[in-house]
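Please fill in the sequence for the structure shown.

STRUCTURE ENCODING:
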């Protein structure tokens, strides 16, 4: 504990269970097995409450007593991405940052360190019709850039 950024530990726990159940379901429907490594990756992302680079996911799994190889983490992320449980964002730091698709969100990316924060889609989407009217773009994602609290400090 202590690194959950959203909700109380019990809320995070309930969310983790829900997301894991969803993950099992999707993997099964896509003919994949819900392996321990895939579940550990999903759990690390649920607990983070946002995007993480693969190496940080790996670090957190090890800190939780897991013993996955980095290559296993990459394979799990690839599989989870291909079936739409996880998506990735390439940051200015040149690193892929992975997040769960389950909760619709847009992204805020730190231009210095590449940290990614998620913006709940509901609020942001409310302004999209106007943006579409103004520009004629078909919008699929909103990306804001700036400096994260750590880099601002
Ligand atoms: Zn995302
Ligand atoms: Zn930063």
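FILLED IN BY: designer on duty
SEQUENCE:
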């Amino acid at each position: 504990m202590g690194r959950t950024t959203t909700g109380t530990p019990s809320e995070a726990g309930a969310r983790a269970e829900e997301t894991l159940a969803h993950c099992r379901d999707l993997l099964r429907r896509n003919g994949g097995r819900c392996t321990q490594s895939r579940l550990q990756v999903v759990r690390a992302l649920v607990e983070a409450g946002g995007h993480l680079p693969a190496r940080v996911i790996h670090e957190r799994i090890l800190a939780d007593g897991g013993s996955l190889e980095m290559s296993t983490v990459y394979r799990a992320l690839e599989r989870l991405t291909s079936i739409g449980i996880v998506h990735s964002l390439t940051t200015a730091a040149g690193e892929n940052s992975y997040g769960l698709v389950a909760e619709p969100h847009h992204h805020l990316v730190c231009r210095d360190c590449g940290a990614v924060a998620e913006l709940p889609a509901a609020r942001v989407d409310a302004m999209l019709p106007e943006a579409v009217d103004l520009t004629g773009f078909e919008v699929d994602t909103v990306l804001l850039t700036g400096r994260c609290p750590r880099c601002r400090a």
